[in-house]
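Standup notes
- DV: blocked on the single-chain target, sequence here:
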Amino acid sequence: MIPGFELPAALERNVRSEPAGRTWLAQLPQQYERYMRRWDLTLDLPDGRAPWTGHTGVVIPVRRHGGTRAVLKLTLPHEEALAEADALELWDGTGAVRLLEADKPELVLLLERLDGDRSLADAPMAEALSVWGGLVRRLAVTVPEASRHTFPLLAAQAEQWTDEFPQRWEQLGRPFERWLLEAALEVCQVHGAVGRRRNADVLVHSDLHYFNILASLEEPHWYLAIDPKPVIGDAEFAVAPMLWNRLGELPDKNPEIALLDRQARLCAAAGLDNELARQWSLVREVQNAIWSYEDGMAAEAARSLWVASAMAGRTYPGLPDVHELPEP
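- DV (later): unblocked, structure below
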């Protein structure tokens, strides 16, 4: 229990399943009080209202000394979150939420406050694709050499996946058809550290989906990215999360073609290579399918296989209709 509010039950369930989750939850009230004092903050949460939460963190509305609105973000330590503050520093409010204060080792951030109740998931698709494209253009910055060690390298990850994907696929009992695995491996071999011939590396927000793009409180038609999972690599790696969300809006007739059209429109809006985006999206959905099978989430795996096979241009037999697939 944190003075002034209770954590949502879903967050507590998620965090308790993580290795360090119970310890983090036990220490959270003290951590919250410590940073409220350190940064001279006051709680700005109406009675009965819960703070915003993600899978492994809580975002608490606060006010700074002088009344400026902000949010205090407390995150369970995990690998994907380690470079968040570094990415936000490089973007410096251009395309992404502005970082106001940070304790990087503790994964505690003070951020400008956006409209947590208005994400790009609420926008019409045409507007969402246009806004997303503009954000990708602004976020695609070159990382200074002195900072490159801070972020994972996509090419190096792809090289690892050429070994990891087949091993995990075998350990799972070959849960999906080999041709889809081989299509992903071919992309990893071509674009991995050894095989790649293209080097246009930029800082990539690899989790840039509709719900991670929030409206500004000051400018309602202005959107900014939150919660980055940064990598250095091809900007086209950012496309996939916009494909595996909002599948229910695809038409009944030829939904696979419609999804490829959505991808082409995303790439046109962001100035990306459509073919490279298709390839990376296929890889990412094969990876998601493997993760889902490892977690015993067969319905989520089916969604990933549907998107991956659409990217591959082939029909995957036995999958549910696209409108029966669960949303992430």
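- Follow-up: The first helix runs from residue 9 to 16.
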